[in-house]
Amino acid sequence: MTTMANHLTALPSTTTVDEIVDVIHRDGGVIVEDFLDTPQLDELRAQLGPVLESTGYGEDEFFAGTQTRRAGGLFGRIDLMPQIALHPLYYGAAKKILQVPLSVWVGDDQIEITPDIQIGVTQAIEIHPGQGAQRLHRDDTSFLWRHPDYGREGRLQIMVAVSDFTAENGGTLVIPGSHRWDDQRGPKQAEAAPTVMRAGAALIWTGSTYHGGGNNSSEAPRTGLTMAFDLACLRQEENQYLSIPRDKLLDLSEEVQRLLGWGSGANLMGYVERGGQMIDAHVLLENGAVELPTAR
Predict the structure, then answer these.
(1) Edge-to-edge strands of the sheet including 222-231?
(2) 97-141: pLDDT as tens digits
(3) How many CA atoms lie within 13 A of 195 on its CB side?
(4) Which of 65, 113, 115, 236 is most buried by its number of CB atoms within 10 A?
């Protein structure tokens, strides 16, 4: 384990889920070295290259950038996405951090419900030279999350380094410990440290941690692939139902299909009615009873 002042801890890929969770609870995020092996990284680059080359620059000076390419719908475009989502360290950490049981009353019975998790957003981000630093933000702002009022996390996000991340090329800026701040305290650029990691490593952080893309003052793009696990009782930030072509979706495992939203949990979120019964939404895929988008 390596730790630098005002920087996130870096752990080897041989670490345990519990060690990752402990560091995230303490710092708001962690770097996992060698998250992808060399063949996986090569495959990812080969698949992602054409996607980004066909993607235009943004037009959002306020937030998303004008010298940055952002491509979504990645489960329909990148074959490696299920391996990233189901990576034992990321998937395991997401379940431990997000799936905290909740006790509720139903009539005279007090029962415990463990929330499901789902994939909320996917995006490949390529920051080109000349792109300034992004405004620091919390990703759970999408849910209008309140800190510390809600007393739990709504998101665990990952950024896989497709190229090396450095202080010069826009390595993600992170404020360690900011996940513990209330909503009255705003982030300062001077408090943020750049994520420095080799290609194949991954940054994992909570939705409550202030972060943002860095300033790219180098001569080459900085490329990363991000996705998030969210509580399944929250609306997905990226509409997964309209983002993934039918043939791609049906080729995915049932576990991944459910993580993309094609399922219902113990609290019945996302159910469909059939014959007067509230049933699991996955039945729509099993019997072909839903229209899905075609490849783009």
Answers:
(1) 10-11, 29-32, 202-206, 155-161, 222-231, 117-127, 68-71
(2) 999 999 999 999 999 999 999 999 999 999 999 999 999 999 999
(3) 37
(4) 65
